[in-house]
Design brief:
The structure holds two protein chains of two kinds.
Chain A (H helix, E strand, L loop, with lengths): L2 H22 L3 H21 L3 H26 L12 H24 L4 H9 L5 H9 L3 H29 L1
Chain B lengths: L5 H37 L15 H11 L10 H17 L9 E4 L2 E4 L8 H9 L2 H11 L3 H24 L1 H6 L6 H7 L8 H4 L1 H14 L11 H4 L9 H26 L16 H25 L7 H30 L2 H26 L16 H5 L1
Antiparallel strand pairs in B: 1-2
The chains are: A mainly alpha, B mainly alpha.
Chain lengths: 173, 396
């Protein structure tokens, strides 16, 4: 077992533990923090893949910005500890069981097919494109259309937020 | 560096880490002393001058006092997070310094050793990522304290940090456009050249101002210290903290200042360059001199931090948000567009510099004009003194 494998197992374990803690903690603040831990471990996994840029962006966007906003909202609403019973209704429970079974099938499928998977090979070739320069070049040549579509979707979301907030404040007046 | 034997690489890295961590800790102590002495000087009083020569040992005495104080944990706090919060603020401050280049390089064992712990390809992104984590310490400390004043401080701080982080990130994009193909801080420092008129702060003057201002906000320093505004919130997010835990919050603030200054010096003020002085002497001396130059530049910048503290009063919260979103962010965005267009069309740093300055001036004028026009004029009251508030008063 080389150093890379040890690190992979470490980051993978931390990421899984974090993910399980998100749903097992009763307090939303602790859940949010567990999610931060998961994001961090995933950034570590990205670094192992040689994707330094993606790792940094993962930390900046998810851990640095989005989760802080989550915490902000949790603190602002002053959400208390969830009680063990009554949080989930019977309908939701059935839905959760179906989703859980689907997820388990997915996991088994990936585990069985991972030996001759093309994704690993693709990731290995992708390690060549690690520097920011190359990512930028790819974004503006090969992936130009998806890039522009993404930015348009984000723009639509921004405008939507502004419209929603504006309407509310006008009604108040 | 590629053909350096592993042993030399590991040994030199360990030595560099040890030196830099201790320099940071000593730097924090000196900053605490300097803050109080310079404050005293600016207010025409003495400041602490009893412990040691010129009061230099005052931080040591303070540290001893902190360590021997009872480590008090109030009953009403959320204990795990309350204990964790100071560390979550202190660790990012420590870790961020890893990619800052402190000087050119020193030749030892026959190999040139760069004066930097890690020269990674995404250096500046790393700094942004790590510093953006510091807000967790403040927010969690505030929430775990279970105290209204602390919570208000934490809420203020998180909103403020997210708002100003945008400017911090966008302000450096102009620099990255003019630096070739990499985000490494070392390359950015090297490409700036030896003379002050080649440094980035002239080419990207508006971005430099926006970045520095955002840096003050990120470090929670006056005039942006609303998270711990004494007159309103007792001590803000660290109201419930005492002894060494309080000291950790305090250390993190000063360490953030030092790291922030070092990053600004690297990005905008030419790093370790100064009129070619960094090339004087042999392979060892030139490295030490370059380190000295970097150190002095950082110290001057840190003095600026203290200076501003006693020059500008604290913002009101709506002013803080207006300033961040309506002035700093447009300035940073314009600098990106203008730098990009002018650099492609003319390929001249002089033109980019002039264009940046002019465009920033225009943007600020437009925003100020719009604000004056859209702010509803307050009904002019006939007050006793005959003073009528104008629209400008409500904007500023």
């Amino acid at each position: 077992m080389n150093a890379e494998q040890i690190l992979f197992i470490l980051f993978g374990a931390v990421s899984l533990i974090g993910a399980v803690s998100v749903i097992s903690f009763r307090h939303p603040i602790y859940s949010a923090l567990s999610l931060v831990v998961t994001f961090f471990a995933q950034a570590g996994l990205f670094i192992l893949l040689g994707a330094h840029f993606v790792a940094a962006v993962q930390v900046i966007v998810y851990a640095g910005a989005i989760m802080v906003l989550f915490l902000f909202v949790i603190m602002l609403l002053n959400l208390g500890t969830l009680s063990a019973k009554g949080a989930i209704g019977p309908k939701l429970k059935g839905f959760a069981v179906i989703l859980g079974i689907l997820l388990a099938i997915e996991g088994i499928y990936i585990a069985v097919n991972s030996a001759n998977d093309t994704a690993v090979a693709a990731a290995e070739t992708a390690t060549g494109t690690t520097t920011t320069y190359q990512i930028g070049e790819l974004l503006f040549s090969k992936y130009l259309l998806p890039f522009e579509v993404t930015s348009l979707i984000l723009l639509a979301a921004l405008i939507g937020v502004i419209v929603l907030v504006k309407r509310e404040s006008q009604e108040e007046n | 560096m590629e053909n350096m034997p592993l042993l030399v690489l590991i040994l030199s890295s360990i030595v560099k880490i040890l030196i830099i961590v201790h320099l940071l800790l000593v730097g924090v102590m000196i900053m605490i002393w300097a803050e109080r002495r310079v404050s005293g000087w600016m207010q025409d009083r003495l400041g602490p001058n009893r412990v040691g020569p010129q009061g230099l040992l005052q931080p040591v005495a303070d540290g001893l006092k902190f360590m021997f104080k009872e480590d008090l944990i109030p009953n009403h706090v959320d204990k795990p997070l309350y204990v964790l919060a100071p560390a979550m603020l202190l660790i990012p401050a420590f870790v961020a310094v890893a990619v800052v280049p402190f000087g050119s390089s020193i030749t030892a064992f026959g190999y040139p050793i760069p004066l930097q712990i890690a020269d990674i390809n995404i250096g500046i992104l790393y700094i942004l990522a790590i510093t953006s984590l510091g807000v967790y310490g403040v927010v969690l400390g505030a929430w775990a304290s279970n105290n209204k004043y602390s919570l208000l401080g934490g809420l203020r701080s998180s909103a403020q940090m997210i708002s100003y982080e945008l400017t911090l990130g966008l302000g450096i994009i102009g620099i990255l456009m003019l630096t070739g193909n990499t985000l490494s801080l070392r390359t950015i420092a090297i490409e700036q050249g030896a003379y002050p008129w080649q440094w980035n702060f002239l080419i990207h003057f508006p971005a430099f101002l926006a970045f520095t201002t955002a840096m003050f906000a990120e470090t929670n320093r006056l005039p942006f210290d609303l998270a711990e505004a004494e007159q309103e919130l007792v001590a803000g997010y660290h109201t419930e903290y005492s002894s060494m835990k309080f000291a950790m919050f305090f250390m993190a603030e000063y360490m953030n200042m030092i790291v922030g200054s070092a990053v600004t010096v690297t990005l905008f003020l030419g790093g370790w360059h100064f009129f070619g002085l960094e090339n004087v002497g042999g392979p060892v001396w030139s490295g030490l001199i370059s380190f000295g130059i970097f150190f002095i530049k950082t110290a001057i910048f840190l003095f600026g931090f203290i200076w501003v503290r006693w020059t500008l009063p604290r913002f009101r919260y709506d002013q803080l948000m207006n300033f961040g979103w309506k002035f700093l962010l447009p300035i940073a965005l314009t600098s990106i567009v203008v730098t990009g267009i002018l650099w492609i069309t003319t390929n001249s740093r002089l033109v980019v510099g002039i264009g940046n300055a002019i465009s920033a001036f225009i943007v600020v004028s437009i925003v100020a004009g719009l604000l004056v026009m859209t702010t509803p004029k307050p009904a002019i009251q006939e007050s006793d003194s005959g003073f009528a508030p104008t629209a400008l008063d409500t904007v500023e």
